[in-house]
Amino acid sequence: MAISARVLALAVPGALLGGAYISQYGFGLYPCEMCWWQRYPHFAALVLAAIGLLQPRQKLWPLLAGLAILVSGLIGAFHAGVEYGWWEGITGCATVAQSGGDPLAAILDAPIVRCDVAPWTLLGISLAGFNFLISTAGALAIFILLRREGTKA
Protein backbone atom coordinates (compact mmCIF):
# COMPACT_ATOMS: atom_id res chain seq x y z
CA MET A 1 0.00 0.00 0.00
CA ALA A 2 1.52 3.30 -1.07
CA ILE A 3 1.42 6.22 1.34
CA SER A 4 -0.56 9.21 0.16
CA ALA A 5 0.82 12.75 0.06
CA ARG A 6 -2.27 13.81 2.02
CA VAL A 7 -1.61 11.35 4.83
CA LEU A 8 2.07 12.30 4.94
CA ALA A 9 1.13 16.01 5.04
CA LEU A 10 -0.90 15.27 8.17
CA ALA A 11 1.50 12.78 9.76
CA VAL A 12 4.74 14.80 9.57
CA PRO A 13 3.57 17.91 11.43
CA GLY A 14 1.46 15.81 13.77
CA ALA A 15 4.42 13.66 14.75
CA LEU A 16 6.81 16.59 15.08
CA LEU A 17 4.39 18.64 17.18
CA GLY A 18 3.65 15.58 19.28
CA GLY A 19 7.37 15.10 19.87
CA ALA A 20 7.78 18.78 20.72
CA TYR A 21 5.03 18.67 23.32
CA ILE A 22 6.27 15.39 24.79
CA SER A 23 9.75 16.87 25.15
CA GLN A 24 8.29 20.02 26.68
CA TYR A 25 5.81 18.55 29.15
CA GLY A 26 7.35 15.12 29.64
CA PHE A 27 11.02 16.05 29.87
CA GLY A 28 11.01 19.75 30.77
CA LEU A 29 12.63 20.93 27.52
CA TYR A 30 10.84 24.26 27.29
CA PRO A 31 10.79 25.94 23.87
CA CYS A 32 12.70 29.11 23.12
CA GLU A 33 11.30 31.78 20.83
CA MET A 34 12.74 30.17 17.69
CA CYS A 35 11.31 26.80 18.76
CA TRP A 36 7.89 28.41 18.72
CA TRP A 37 8.60 29.85 15.27
CA GLN A 38 9.10 26.27 14.06
CA ARG A 39 5.79 25.13 15.54
CA TYR A 40 3.58 27.75 13.87
CA PRO A 41 4.01 26.44 10.29
CA HIS A 42 3.31 22.91 11.55
CA PHE A 43 0.01 24.11 13.06
CA ALA A 44 -0.87 25.62 9.69
CA ALA A 45 0.19 22.42 7.91
CA LEU A 46 -2.16 20.35 10.09
CA VAL A 47 -5.12 22.53 9.11
CA LEU A 48 -4.16 22.54 5.43
CA ALA A 49 -3.62 18.77 5.43
CA ALA A 50 -6.98 18.18 7.10
CA ILE A 51 -8.67 20.26 4.40
CA GLY A 52 -6.72 18.22 1.85
CA LEU A 53 -8.18 15.01 3.25
CA LEU A 54 -11.66 16.48 2.82
CA GLN A 55 -10.87 17.63 -0.74
CA PRO A 56 -9.12 14.54 -2.15
CA ARG A 57 -9.34 15.62 -5.79
CA GLN A 58 -7.29 18.78 -5.30
CA LYS A 59 -3.51 18.98 -4.94
CA LEU A 60 -3.59 22.54 -3.60
CA TRP A 61 -4.14 21.74 0.09
CA PRO A 62 -1.45 19.07 0.55
CA LEU A 63 0.87 21.24 -1.56
CA LEU A 64 0.33 24.18 0.79
CA ALA A 65 0.78 21.87 3.78
CA GLY A 66 4.06 20.66 2.29
CA LEU A 67 5.20 24.25 1.84
CA ALA A 68 4.34 25.04 5.48
CA ILE A 69 6.30 21.96 6.59
CA LEU A 70 9.25 23.09 4.48
CA VAL A 71 9.10 26.57 6.05
CA SER A 72 9.29 25.00 9.50
CA GLY A 73 12.28 22.94 8.37
CA LEU A 74 14.06 26.03 7.08
CA ILE A 75 13.42 27.85 10.36
CA GLY A 76 14.82 24.75 12.08
CA ALA A 77 17.95 24.97 9.91
CA PHE A 78 18.44 28.59 10.92
CA HIS A 79 17.86 27.75 14.59
CA ALA A 80 20.28 24.82 14.45
CA GLY A 81 22.90 27.12 12.92
CA VAL A 82 22.43 29.51 15.83
CA GLU A 83 22.77 26.64 18.32
CA TYR A 84 25.95 25.37 16.64
CA GLY A 85 27.42 28.89 16.55
CA TRP A 86 27.53 29.10 12.75
CA TRP A 87 25.78 32.50 12.80
CA GLU A 88 24.10 34.83 15.28
CA GLY A 89 20.44 34.58 16.02
CA ILE A 90 18.00 36.71 17.90
CA THR A 91 19.05 38.28 21.17
CA GLY A 92 15.83 37.73 23.12
CA CYS A 93 15.15 34.71 25.27
CA ALA A 94 11.84 33.18 26.26
CA THR A 95 10.73 32.36 29.78
CA VAL A 96 8.01 30.01 30.95
CA ALA A 97 6.20 31.09 34.11
CA GLN A 98 4.94 28.32 36.35
CA SER A 99 1.28 28.56 37.41
CA GLY A 100 0.04 28.66 40.99
CA GLY A 101 1.16 30.66 43.99
CA ASP A 102 2.61 34.15 43.80
CA PRO A 103 2.57 35.40 40.17
CA LEU A 104 5.66 37.57 40.64
CA ALA A 105 7.61 34.70 42.17
CA ALA A 106 6.48 32.44 39.31
CA ILE A 107 7.82 34.92 36.76
CA LEU A 108 11.10 35.43 38.61
CA ASP A 109 11.61 31.69 39.12
CA ALA A 110 10.73 30.78 35.51
CA PRO A 111 13.54 29.13 33.57
CA ILE A 112 15.25 31.25 30.95
CA VAL A 113 15.34 29.39 27.66
CA ARG A 114 18.18 30.47 25.41
CA CYS A 115 17.86 30.18 21.65
CA ASP A 116 21.59 29.70 21.13
CA VAL A 117 22.00 26.64 23.36
CA ALA A 118 20.68 23.22 22.38
CA PRO A 119 19.00 21.75 25.48
CA TRP A 120 19.29 18.20 24.08
CA THR A 121 21.15 16.48 21.27
CA LEU A 122 21.36 12.99 19.82
CA LEU A 123 24.48 12.16 17.83
CA GLY A 124 25.29 15.87 17.85
CA ILE A 125 21.95 16.86 16.27
CA SER A 126 19.69 19.21 18.20
CA LEU A 127 15.90 19.18 18.17
CA ALA A 128 15.98 22.08 15.70
CA GLY A 129 18.35 20.05 13.55
CA PHE A 130 16.01 17.07 13.64
CA ASN A 131 13.11 19.35 12.71
CA PHE A 132 15.12 20.53 9.71
CA LEU A 133 15.97 16.98 8.61
CA ILE A 134 12.51 15.49 9.12
CA SER A 135 10.52 18.47 7.84
CA THR A 136 12.63 18.93 4.73
CA ALA A 137 12.56 15.24 3.87
CA GLY A 138 8.82 15.08 4.59
CA ALA A 139 8.06 18.13 2.44
CA LEU A 140 10.14 16.77 -0.45
CA ALA A 141 8.36 13.42 -0.18
CA ILE A 142 4.99 15.19 -0.26
CA PHE A 143 6.00 17.14 -3.38
CA ILE A 144 7.23 13.97 -5.11
CA LEU A 145 4.07 12.05 -4.21
CA LEU A 146 1.87 14.89 -5.42
CA ARG A 147 3.75 15.02 -8.70
CA ARG A 148 3.20 11.28 -9.18
CA GLU A 149 -0.53 11.56 -8.49
CA GLY A 150 -2.61 12.32 -11.54
CA THR A 151 -5.18 14.58 -9.85
CA LYS A 152 -6.20 18.14 -10.66
CA ALA A 153 -4.59 21.16 -9.02
Q: What does this entry look like structurally?
A:
The structure is a single chain. This protein is mostly helical and about 150 residues long. It has a domain at about 30-85 and about 115-153. About 65% of the residues lie in helices and about 5% in strands. The protein has 5 helices and 4 strands, in the order H-H-H-E-H-E-E-E-H. It has helices spanning about 5-25, 35-55, 60-85, 105-110, 125-150, and strands spanning about 95, 110-115, 120, 125. The strands form 2 sheets. The chain has a two-stranded antiparallel ribbon. A hairpin with a 2-residue loop joins strand 3 and strand 4. The chain is globular.
Let me know the average pLDDT: 85
Largest sheet, in brief, is: 2 strands, antiparallel
CA distance, first residue to last residue:
23 Å
Question: What is the number of beta strands?
Answer: 4
Total number of helices: 5
Tell me the Rg in angstroms. 18 Å
Give the helix/strand class. mainly alpha
Which regions are unreliable across 5 or more consecutive residues at pLDDT < 50?
Answer: none
Order of helices and strands: HHHEHEEEH
Main sheet: strand order: 1-2
Share of residues in strands: 5-15%
Helix content: 55-70%
* Principal-axis shape: globular
